[in-house]
Amino acid sequence: MLLLAACVACQHPDRENPADPAVLLRALHAAGTEAQRLADLDTLSTLPRSALDALTADPLTAVRALLDDADPSVAAKAADLLAHWGDRGATPGVVRLLQHRDPIVRLSAATALGTLADPASTEALIQAAGDADANVRAQACSALGTIGQARAAPVLRERLGDADASVRAAAVGALATMASSGDVVALLGLLQDHDAGVVTAAAEALGRSGDEQAVAPLIALLRYADEVPRCAAVIALGRLGDPAAVGPLVEQLRSHDLTVRIATLRALGTLGDPAALPAMLDAAADGNPIVAERLPYALARLYARSDHEAFAGYLRSPNPNVRAAVALALGVAGDGRAASLLRQALTDPAGAVRLGAVEALGLLGLPDSTDVLRHVNEQDPDPQVREAAAVAVVLVQQPASSLTQRLRDSLHDPDPAVRRSAADVLGFLGVTEDAVAVLRHAAEADTDATVANAAMLAVLRMDDPTL
Predict the structure, then answer these.
(1) Report field, pTM of the whole predicted structure over 0.85
(2) For the chain, which domains are there?
(3) Is the per-residue pLDDT at 152 higher than 50?
């Protein structure tokens, strides 16, 4: 530590506090080395905004001046920092960097403009989509997709035929944000592209298109050798919601790739066809812990009140992994008739089954489960089950009637284990829009890192159920 401090002092011998933002901003315009100025810009990006707001000088103005710096690395880093700060006032200066002779600077500028998402940069990015450098073209296309101005669509369609695969993929992703039904035919053609990344992007875009003519080509894509496009096809078919995909998707539960299997569980759950139930229970039987974590939420989507007796029978399966998955699925499904069966499962010899039953009782939220859950919290031999019982007691005691609201309320509980569990469950349920704001706040503000990470992961699962 002393050696590090000495090194910092050697680099900045004239500074009392090298991390002081006022000192850093002054030094940026002094005659320092490129390495020092880049390091100063990096340090500024790590400081809280409150430290900058307290300055008498405007830090945005000070950094904007660097967009015209003679050192291209400093100019590019300044663009990155201003984008990080969300300074749309910097847009004209960053746009100028799109004309820089160095492609690395142009790439940084395109990236920064995508982060700023300022519609005022649309025309400049349209021009950059034809840049001589493929990386710049790709980044310009991505930025145009983020901004979402319809007038960019013609140039993005041109880029679908670009010689560089990364540009084609970026153009596909950008067009997908504009939701034009006229692009479906072109996207279907790109499912035959020789590059797996382009095929993946096209499959993702078709899944968001809602166009039923994509179903058959996406089913055919399930035979693709590379698992990444196959996974994209699985997710897309789940989003399109056509029951014709159920049989082909069931076959993907036998995939050697874990990510494909996880995506398939979510897709089959979304489709909600009971025909998938036997294969899903077979998936539970193999005991993979990541599958076991997600399977109950998919099973619950196949549950109907008329299926109660059949599900109750699965609780007598000789395989404890099946019993555990079904127990938690009954809680997620929210049928209070399962409560007595779940209380019986609290004596199951398998800890995984008791854990599933405890979590299910918490999700059901029936007040008469409080005493039995407290008993489990005090007496169960498995510490994981005991902790889950303590969390379940809190969930049961939440006054809200809906499960989603009880989970949202639990994100404010003083116990981080309760908050973390609530975030996890919301993520596996498939986060609803009304819960996203609460989860994002938890991701940014919760003082417990495990809770913040769980909340952010829950939000990310809206777009990528394999996470």
Answers:
(1) no
(2) 1-116 (1.25.10.10), 276-397 (1.25.10.10), 402-467 (1.25.10)
(3) yes
